[in-house]
Amino acid sequence: MKVSLDLLRSFLAVHRSGSVTGAAELLGVAQPTVTAQLRALEEAVGRPLFDRLPRGVTPTAAGDELARRVAEPLDRLAAVLTDEPGAAYARTVFLGGPAELLAERVLPALGGLVAEGMELRVAAGLPERLLDDLVAGRLDLAVTSVRPRRRGVVVEPLYDEEFVLVAAPAWADRLPDPVTPAALRDVPLVAYGEEAPILRRYWRTVFDTRLTRTPSLVVADLRAVRAAVVAGAGASVLPAYLCRGELASGAVRALLTPAVPPLNTLFLAARPAVAGRREVQAVRRALLAAAPGW
Q1: pLDDT, average across residues 269-292
Q2: How far is Cα 183 from Cα 19, in angstroms, rounded to an integer?
Q3: What are φ and ψ of residue 108, in 5° steps?
Q4: Alpha-carbon torsion 217, 239, 164, 227, what sign?
Q5: How is domain 161-262 classified at the CATH fold level?
Q6: Tens of pLDDT along 94-130?
Q7: Topology of domain 5-82, per CATH?
Q8: Do 5-82 and 161-262 agree at the fold level?
Q9: Structure confidence by residue, pLDDT tens digits, 201-218
Q10: Which residues of 110-131 are buried (b: 16+ CB within 10 A; e: fewer)?
Q11: Which fold has domain 93-153+271-293?
Q12: How far is the C-alpha of 188 from the C-alpha of 171, rounded, in Å?
């Protein structure tokens, strides 16, 4: 079975945008052209790739599987075709993510690209705002702690962050080993949000119980949470990458070492219209290469 690249490009654009109209806009071609190419591809593979909806389309299982297989090769090919060896990066990349991850891991991983001539504009934010900006075209790439479920966004796993329950030695010395929720009842809790989602998830997955307390200190930056814990404000749950140095120095201690620590997957999301650009691909490759060492 021979299938042209044009058919696969149109298919992938429909899969990413969620509609034939959106795909036509991404590709810069007429809507009937995309419709005809999609029909030809479905005939070639012998099965429907999308279910038609009143507004847009949704992929079938076969469509999702085909997209999984062809997305990476097509994106790589697009990057090669637009790449000019030795040329400066022509366009600015707009990148978003959690403030602490940007500062501690993402920007250090991209320093070399900036030194080579890339221009970056970076914005910090919460997942929903980042995805709004991505879909609206204000961002090209976003690192998000929530898997995007929106049409028109290309998503891939970036990094699994592990969480650690920590406190300063002054608190840790007062607690039993292993620590229990009852033992933590009189220890102030530090959180980055009023709802304390990281703490609540830890209590649920590790202690198998609900956290019913409200935090004593709330500050909307995990680096500030770390600073407060080091200063003795109380206990918190932090990503391991963010407190690795403090654990090594003894500034904080892990209060528990569960057999299976809680994990949260961070995702790298991109706008399909720019996913193949040389600059965007360079940022993507740099982050994927650096993430295993985080």
Answers
A1: 88
A2: 54
A3: -60, -35
A4: negative
A5: D-Maltodextrin-Binding Protein; domain 2 (3.40.190)
A6: 999 999 999 999 999 999 999 999 999 999 998 999 9
A7: Arc Repressor Mutant, subunit A (1.10.10)
A8: no
A9: 999 999 999 999 999 999
A10: beebeeeebebebbebebeebb
A11: D-Maltodextrin-Binding Protein; domain 2 (3.40.190)
A12: 10
